[in-house]
Amino acid sequence: MTIEALHGAVDLGGSHVGLALGVVDAAAGEFRLVARRDLEGGGYDGWQTVLDRIAEGMLELAREVGEPPAAIGVGCPGWVDLEQGETRFLPNLPGQWRDVPVARLLGERLEAPVHLLNDVRAATLGEFTFGAGRGTSTMALFALGTGIGGGVVVDGRLRLGPLGSAGELGHQIVDPGGPLCGCGARGCLEAVASGPAIAAAGVRLLRSGQAPALFDLSAGDAGRVTAETMGEAAAAGDEAVTKELERIAGLVGIAAANVVVTLHPELIVLGGGVAGLGDVLFDGVRRTIADRVRVFPTDGVRVEPAALGTDAGLAGVLAWAASRRGAGLGLHRDHG
Ligand SMILES: [Zn+2]
């Protein structure tokens, strides 16, 4: 592994903020985290406090390792202004971090350039460079969790668009008359296939009396029904639950089929907690792509699980920091 330089990575979230120092060899598809820590208190305090802790934590890591990072990448849960290095709207953090000059404030403390990126776009870049997408040229990632995020890589480049928002795959409309989504539209994939949407479907089955195994697993308590217990109930023989999961997998499949006809990727990666449903999800998505995309053969499109788990975001912002270092402000860059 050719070590170019030490870089810093920040994974900013609500319940969790992770810091790491690491090295990347993007050409070889390898990264190594040489030091890491989780910040106490996560991201639920005001932005000044959180940025202070990030700066202090990063300086401590650099002292431990004996070398400062050449650049730092920060993965943010929401909309960021890549050019200005400011957060615009992080809906799940207190105060929503509107127009916070994160790159300037952290950059002054750490004496290094700081580059922001949406967290799921960061995970996409991580999986593409180091994980499930190694060796591919065009891929898409669906992050299926409490919400549904996404990212796309086209011909070897992370596609960001003018607002860094390209690849919001969870906000494709898959059910025109469907439920309202948090974004304000109706029938988005996120509104019908996120973890909470799957749990809500499970609660309906629980109350209808059609899901005895789910009833046992949750002790009849609607508050204990999750995507995970739905998967367990299906495995334990609840046919109605299996059917419901197949229906939801079909909706993810429609979204994936839309991506297939748009990009003809070699690979679609499914990550996030909901991907833990396993075969019922992956087989449903594969079957839907095969059934619904008729205009060209899709045999070459693989649907695979994410490979890096929760490290995908840290790895991705490391690669982002390394690729942006000294690179000016052009948004569409090679990451190799
Ligand atoms: Zn939406």
Q: If you had to describe this structure to a student in words, what would you say it looks like?
A:
- With 336 residues, the protein is of the alpha/beta class.
- The protein folds into two domains: 7-124 and 310-324, Nucleotidyltransferase, domain 5 (2-Layer Sandwich); 135-305, Nucleotidyltransferase, domain 5.
- It is 38% helix and 19% strand.
- It is built from ten helices and twelve strands.
- It has helices at residues 47-65, 102-110, 119-130, 189-193, 195-208, 212-217, 227-235, 239-263, 279-292, 311-324; strands at 7-12, 17-25, 30-38, 72-76, 79-81, 86-89, 114-118, 139-144, 148-154, 157-158, 267-271, 302-305.
- The strands form three sheets. The protein has a five-stranded mixed sheet, sandwiched between helices. Strands 10-9-8-11-12 form a five-stranded mixed sheet, with helices on both faces. Strands 5-6 form a two-stranded antiparallel sheet.
- It is globular, with a radius of gyration of 20 Å.
- The chain starts with 6 loop residues before the first strand and ends in a 12-residue tail after the last helix.
- Zinc ion (ZN) is lined by residues 171, 181, 183, 185, 188, 190.
